[in-house]
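In response to reviewer comment 3 from the previous cycle, which asked for concrete evidence that the modeling workflow produces usable outputs, we include below a single protein chain processed end to end. The sequence was submitted unchanged, and the resulting structure tokens are shown without manual editing.
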Amino acid sequence: MIRHDVLVVGGGLAGLRAAIGLASTWDVAVVSKVHPVRSHSVAAQGGINAALGNAPEARDDSPGKHAFDTVKGSDFLADQAAVLRMCELAPETVAEMDRFGAPFSRFPDGSIAQRPFGGAGFPRTCYAADRTGHILLQTLYEQLVKRRITVYDECALVRLAVRDGQCHGLVVYDLKRGCFEAMASRFCVLATGGYGRIYRNSTNALINTGSGIGVALLAGVAVKDLEFVQFHPTTQFGTNILITEGARGEGGYLLNRLGQRFMDRYAAKMMELAPRDIVARAIQTEIDQGRGFEGGYVQLDLRHLGREKIRQRLPGIRQICIDFGGMDPVEEPIPVQPSQHYSMGGIATDARGRTEVPNLYAAGECACVSVHGANRLGGNSLLETIVFGRLVADAINARRAEPSVEISPAVLKEELWALTRKVEGLLASPDGVAYWQIADKLKAVLTEKVGIFRNEADLADAVEQIRRLREQYRNIRLRTPPGPFQSEVLHVLELESLLSLGEITAQGALARRESRGSHYRIDYPDRDDAHWLRHTIARLEGPEPRLFSGDVDTSLYEPEQRVY
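The workflow returned the following structure tokens.
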């Protein structure tokens, strides 16, 4: 049995920053489904927000103004003290990454360059061309190597060993060896990313199956606000590869089939730089009302920016268009469509990343602090990962003097034995359903019924269909036994939690009879603060999800009409 003081699950930005902050105090290890530099943080393109005031038009920016923009962007569902803390730490977070060696793009005076992003009152998005996530991830990985932190890569989390309100460690599936492994630890940190792959059309990597959220839920931990799913307005038509908001921040136009810059009908003041939920709905409305192009897309036009600006500021986007779209944005507009992109909901935590299990923490997209509420502003996700990775490390370091938690190897062995028996049972059911048949149906249901526009009939049908899929899961089969790089067993085990996450997403959307941020009910088109200014908390009671309500922190700003 493997033992460490702290196990950090996830090799993206949140996990790496947590591990780096813990390394001088604890024996810490990182457990990751892929090598850390292949984590999904690498896909973030546009930038990281901080009120530095480097742009001439941003001299009056401040963390308080950043916080207000974030709260307004969240449609006032974000917890405001947590938002302010994140925004206050943003400048020093960017400064730290600069000291670590991140090669940010620069203004002529040498200061870190900042570009406009949607929903922001000032240009405050710091960037490294259009590869910001890639740059920051490589930078933190270098720091991980410098500190000689142990990494168990190609090890996928499949269970948490929680007993009597205490987490004793976790069980992983070691893909390289094709077997289960128990890992004991005094503290566990989940930084496993989002659950975008429960949708058919997503910008998310194939590894984004919500595994950390799912195992926490199965272990009895509460999750929060899963009905709030962000659809990015601009993904490449046909592939769903992300086309960064930075393309619009640099001055790109959205055009419909009639050649119109249609955003003046939806957000006349901010146009293409309205928050993502508004732009995504605008694009989908243009398509649904027949003003999109055949197949279902609009165009993102960068041609007026000129070859040199595109080459310098958006080189990655140009290469994506050439390699995967067979076109050059210097010469023709990019076909784009909305696709699932981000999970505002996740494991319920406080502002220090603590869950209701005292020695279990979570940070990044798998956690819900909540600093994004009903809609995340672009540029705040990279910020959230690094800030709350740091705050989790600080919270655990503050517990150094506490008596050591008694970890029970017996609890871990029981989890290991239960998984072994489960797999043996799946192998003994040759006539069962293949996992992909259920997974594909789950994706179809969520895509078609729980998308950008929602209504009661579709949502009720989605809940019922997902419940039937959960029944089918009882008869699932495993075709081949575990072995080196045999991933079917992992897909089968992850599907169990994905079904629960999918059902809670649909249930929460059905229950929330209002429109707020990314959650848009065509049968309840208005925001209803009197009844729905509250978080949706969910947990499993037996096999069934149950929904509860949680208070929203509105201590700084009173909710107001959200217009752009």
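The radius of gyration is 23 Å. We consider this sufficient to address the reviewer's concern, and the full set will be provided in the supplementary archive.
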